[in-house]
C-alpha cells in the first residue's frame, strides 16, 4: 500500500511545519523553527524543524525524522498506518501507491527529454545563426550574455519541426515528447513543435531540475508568453520561477531579513538578477495559489510583491493577499512608478533607487484596505459594499490584533464605527459557518539555545551536508575517515557522500533521507540537517574538513589500537607467541600511521 508514489505525494502536500504546529508551538529562528519537544518533558526548546528540508530533530531526546516519522512517533503508529493516516487526512487517494511501478522511470525519461530540448534550444541561441533574432531581442532588453548563459536561455526557431527532427535524429520517441509538453499533435495526427519563434526560458522545479519551458513570442504572435502544459513532472500551481535560486541565495544568508521578492514575469525576475539580487521568484503566468504560499512560507518570513505600476498590477497584488494572509506570511508591496514593470524600472533606475522604494514598502494588508477605501464612492451603500469586499479578504484572518488594526483603518477611512464593522464581519462569517477564530499566542515565551556536541565523524558529515562541494577535494579521504564511525553514521555517510558525488557538488537531502533504511540512520541525518550552524566561507570549510578528517582518523586508529591491545592481552594469557608477534607489528604500523596523521595535512 505505502508505495513510493504515495509517500512522495504525501511529502508534496503535507508541510511538516504545519503538521507539527498542531501540537507544538513553533517559533521561527533564522532558517528553522523551534519549540518544546512533544516526545519528552522540557522547559527550554530543543526541538527543531527545518522547513526547507522537511525534517525535525530534538537535541534533548534524539528523536528525529520526516513527516511520516513524526506521525509514527506522535500517534504511536507503524509506518504503514502513519502513511494511511496522512493520506486520509489530506485526501490523497491510497491507490496512488499501488499505481504504475514504471511511473518513476517515466518521470526520469521526461527529465531527460526536457534536458535534451534545453540543450538544443540553448545551442540555437548562442551557436547558430538562426538564433540571431533572439540574441538581438536579449540585447535590446538589456539581458547580459553571462546571465542568459547562466539561465540557459534558448531559442526555438520559426520552424514546425526543428526540435522534432532533432529528437528523431537522436532516436527519441516523439510520443514521449508530447508527454513532456514539447510537441503538439494535431487532430489529423500530425506532430509538431510546441515552441516556434520564441525565446525560451527553462523552468526548474524546487530541486533545480528543468521540468518545463516558457516561450516569449518574438514576432508579436499571441500569446506573448506560451508555457509548457502540465505534465507528470510539471505542476504550475506548485512551482515558482527561480524558486531554487532564491532558496540558494537565502541559504547562504548568515543574517538579516529572510524575505523574497515576488514578481509576475520571467523578465521581471531576471531584471532582479541583473542587479545582483537573487531573492526573487515569479508566478508562471498562472494565478497565485495556496500551494505557492506554502512554498514561500517554507523559505522566508516576508514576501515582498513587486508588480507592474498600473491598475492591473495593483489588482493582481490584491488577489494574492488572502493566500498569504491564510498562511500567516508577512507580506508587503513595493509600488513602482506608474506604467513601469520591474524590468522597465531596472533599465532606468539603479539598485540604490530601488532600495529607497523598498524601504518605503507598504504592508500588503494596509495596501489592500487603502485601495478599497479609495474606490468608495461616498455613499452609504458604497460603504457597505466596501466593508463586504474587505470582509472577503479578511475572513480567514485569525489574528485578533491584526484584525483590530485593520478594522481601525477601515473605520477611519470610511467613517464607520469599529464596532459596527466588527458586528458585520461576525454576522457574515457566521452565515457561512466560518466564525472568527480567536488566535492564541502561537509562540512559547522562553527562548532557549541548544548547542549540540558532535563526534568528529558526525561533524564531518555535517560539514559535507552543508558544503557538498568539499567532496570534490576530499572524496576518498572522507570515505576512509568515516569508516570507523557507528553503523548508523556509516550508513548516513555513505548516502551523503554518494549523493554529493552524484549531485556534482549539490546535495538533495530529502533524496538522501529516502535512501536510508534504518531509523537510527534517519534520526542521525535529521540531527545533522536540522542544526543550523553553517560553515560560512569556503576557506574555513576546507580547513575544517581537513582537520576533521584528521580527527576521525585519529579516533579510528585509537579504536583499532584498543582492539589490538585487548587481543594482545588475550594472546599473552594463552602464551600464543606467534599471534603476539603479529599483533605487535600491527600496533607498530598503526602508531607509525598516527605519527603521519599528526604530521600535517599534506601527508594524510
Ligand atoms: Zn525531545
Automatic annotation (TrEMBL):
This protein's name: DNA primase
One Pfam family, short name: Toprim_2
Cofactor note: Binds 1 zinc ion per monomer.
Keyword rRNA-binding belongs to the record: no
Annotated Toprim domain residues: 258-350
Highest taxon, organism lineage: Bacteria
PANTHER family per record: DNA PRIMASE
InterPro entries: DNA_helicase_N/primase_C (IPR016136), DNA_primase_core_N_sf (IPR037068), DNA_primase_DnaB-bd (IPR019475), DNA_primase_DnaG (IPR006295), DNA_primase_Znf_CHC2 (IPR036977), DnaG_bac (IPR030846), DNAG_N (IPR013264), DnaG_primase (IPR050219)
GO CC terms, sorted: cytoplasm; DNA-directed RNA polymerase complex; primosome complex
The EC number(s) this enzyme carries: 2.7.7.101
Family (UniProt): Belongs to the DnaG primase family.
GO biological-process terms attached to the record: DNA replication, synthesis of primer
Record key words, sorted: DNA replication, DNA-binding, DNA-directed RNA polymerase, Magnesium, Metal-binding, Nucleotidyltransferase, Primosome, Transcription, Transferase, Zinc, Zinc-finger
Subunit structure as annotated in this protein's UniProt entry: Monomer. Interacts with DnaB.
Cofactor: Zn(2+)
Gene expressing this chain: dnaG
Domains as described in the record: Contains an N-terminal zinc-binding domain, a central core domain that contains the primase activity, and a C-terminal DnaB-binding domain.
Zinc fingers (CHC2-type), renumbered ranges: 37-61
